[in-house]
Amino acid sequence: MHPRPVALNLALCAGLISTSMVLLAGCASQAPKAANAAAEPAAASTAPAAVPEIAPGIPAGYLHKEQYLDSLALVPAPPAKGSAAFAHDQAVREEAITLRGTPRWQQAISDADLHFPHAAGTFECALGIPVSQQATPRLYLLLQRSMVDAGLSTYGAKNQYNRTRPFALAKEASCTPDEEAALRKDGSYPSGHTTIGWAWALILAELAPDRANAILARGRSFGESRLICNVHWQSDILEGRFMGAGTVARLHADPTFEADLAAAKAEIASARSQGLAPGRDCAAEATALQRKLERVL
């Protein structure tokens, strides 16, 4: 089940940003000043310290509202209709929708779901270990909190440009029909899912550098799933990666984030030493992700 749009509040916030990050936008004003609660010492066996919630089941991010990156100041206006850049966006969309009904389409539907615990497993196959509250509680919380910071960074531009999503402009279906009413009201530029997925990819590549190629490839495919879902344009994806990278750079200045990184790295090492295996069907995921879009940048 997916949440409804943005002004509903991130939970709605909890399934989170799923229907878009709209949820997140509604939560921005609610992020408690205590969001940077002191972290416990880094250790694989240490449970995470309690973190204030911005909605039931949704922990606050690491950053305060005034610390979020300003996408309106950082990204250019989206391509204008009739421009060469918009023509490219349309060409990518036309290619992407040919994958409807294929295993890659099913993977895109899975990637659209940002609810936890489902979303926590996005990079399990790339990491080679399970990611859950039971196996890796500090990493699980790190992904939850960084998702909030990354997602909320997109709303300056989203709200200003209120760009129409491709399925709405073309009067076609998306991969998440239950979310379409909400998505029609939520600007597509830049892509919140892509921002989150790329932020996660950069964080995880740092935590497991020996798996960096697989992790970054998965981060790229996660964003491209939004093209296949027919809910984002290629330029939305490109600027989403930019915002994701910027968010990670900003998070590195936060001491609680740094402490959680160390704790998550210890958990990954522990999971590997125990021989824990991913809970997802990695063979099926690999097969689905073999389908590439030729026109994407």
Structure characterization notes:
By secondary structure, the chain is mostly helical. It has a single domain, classed as Up-down Bundle (Vanadium-containing Chloroperoxidase, domain 1). Helices cover 49% and strands 2% of the residues. It contains 14 helices and two strands. It has helices spanning 22-27, 71-74, 84-96, 103-112, 124-127, 137-152, 155-161, 166-170, 180-183, 192-207, 212-228, 234-251, 255-273, 282-289, and strands at residues 53-55, 58-59. Strands 1-2 form a two-stranded antiparallel sheet. Helix 4 packs across helix 14 (282-289), helix 6 packs antiparallel against helix 10 (192-207) and helix 6 crosses helix 12 (234-251). The longest helix is centred in the last third of the chain and has 19 residues, at 255-273. Mean pLDDT is 88; it is low at 1-20 and 29-45.
